[in-house]
Amino acid sequence: MSLLRMAAVAEAFDRDLDGDLERIAKIIDGARADGVRLLALPEACLGGYLADLGGRAEQPPALRPDGPEIARLIELAGDMVVCAGYCEDAGGLRYNSVVCVGDGRVLGNHRKVHQPLRENASYASGDSFAAFDTPIGRIGMLICYDKAFPESARALALDGAEIIVCVSAWPGSRTNAPDDLADDRWTRRFDLFDRARALENQVVWLSANQSGTFGSLRFVCSAKIVDPGGDVVATTGVVPGIAIADLDVPAALGDARRAMGHLRDRRPDTYVR
User: How many domains does the chain have?
Assistant: First the structure.
């Protein structure tokens, strides 16, 4: 048995990029001390998310994948594989992106495809889903609202992703919001999407999220790790923290897919597009 220790983070990040990197350094140091080899940080952990979704507020700093901030993240990661959300500067366009670093380099990058509630006023949209190889296995990445669309995770699973990392800045309800985030309907939806996407694709699922408040948004935390059977094996609940779990990923996938293989048993010729 070869166990992989993985972790998903619920933490607050803001426009103070230096402060964000200091916070990330502390999280990575603590995770490394705990033996973590794969770490998922939230959407927009480098520079913060949007204070509102109408494009009126101050925008996050746009960072180049080959710039000094991502180079610093690579340095901090060391021999760990780390996924972190940021605003990507790409030829004058801004993307809501997540980068995966490790082994001294950028391993993968994903630009958020699905944009809710006028997020397109602040970001261009990505146009693809692709898995990639890392020192700890083949990974796919999604950002927040991407996970509401089954095709997103399915595309990654069909591309061989064994682990899907979904980073989020997922807020609670804006109307009729309960005092306790555990009772919030958007917390419930966040958790349901995580479990459903893991189960239907029979993959390991890491879900990181922002915590606290930023502008008009209050984030639901709920960082978690879900096994290929759709069972939550570690979670922060609706408070900040880090969810850690040990899984033998090949064995877990094999057990889940042995009798009922959801990818194997597909009938794409019968599906209406």
Answer: 1
